[in-house]
Amino acid sequence: MRLLKRLKRNYLAVSGAVILTLILSAGLLAPWLAPHDPNECVLRNRAQGSSAEYPLGTDELGRCMLSRLLYGARLSFVTGLGTVLMAAAAGIPLGLAAGYYGGWFDNSLMGIMDVLLSVPYFLLALAIVAILGPGLLNSMIAIAVWTLPGYVRITRACVLEVREKEYIEPARAIGHSDLAILVRHVFPNCLSTLIVQTSLRVGSAIVSVAALSFLGLGAQPPTPEWGAMLNSGRVYIRTAPHIVTYPGLAIFTSVLGFNLVGDGLRDALDPRLRRL
């Protein structure tokens, strides 16, 4: 309840939540809100502006822009959240183990993470997609690998701080296993930081997956994905700018929403930043 009260006082966070709710609702309700099939091509209507039949115009193949944007919303949310959850599912356990046990495992893991961080992130993603092949799932895996070191390092830093707290020693003294200590005492105290990082990284993941799709390495035609829509419409940026303007605005608005919510969660969960 306190968290909700703090978030309500943060008007930017509330604005971000409203933006994300509207976009997510539009994506979930796409089958009912979309006026046309997103992949239906009507060549005689290609590259048209707004009209009663096509509220946001049509793309280079005569497909309804509004319908494709609505269906693209669900894809962007799924890819953004899915990418971050994959990275978190691997990175958080590794960070917990590295920070709690230390020693050779910690040194070896941090060495591997440093190597990954030393490679420019987009170059690393391109290399992984080149190995796995183009496709939306492979692009998600590539971005998840790039996101992994951040989760490992953040989780490890939290564990190094928490494991020295006074309440850890009594847990060891009464015979709790290392797994029980990590799950019951260490991880809950790292959760707030990880929630904030997740909300901020989803927006970055959406942009990264869209960038790979723009290069033809992510979602493949005719999938209505925002980055792929930018790629297919870039040739018409002068003659029919709406083809690239609307997908670009959709990406911008989604990332803005996640960043506003992430900043609000940071202010609400970090005691040093709470506004009393």
Summarize the structure.
73% of the residues lie in helices and 0% in strands.
Q: What is the helix fraction of residues, given as a range?
A: over 70%
Q: Can you count the beta strands? A: 0
If helices are DSSP runs of H or I spanning 4 or more residues, what is the number of helices? 11
**Global geometry:** elongated
Taking the sheet with the most strands, its summary is: none
How is this structure best described in words?
This protein is an all-alpha fold. It has one domain: Orthogonal Bundle (MetI-like fold), CATH 1.10.3720. Helices cover 73% and strands 0% of the residues. The chain is built from 11 helices and no strands. Helix 4 runs antiparallel to helix 9 and helix 7 packs antiparallel against helix 9. The protein is elongated. The two termini are 15 Å apart. The relative contact order is 0.16. The model has no long low-confidence stretch (mean pLDDT 86).
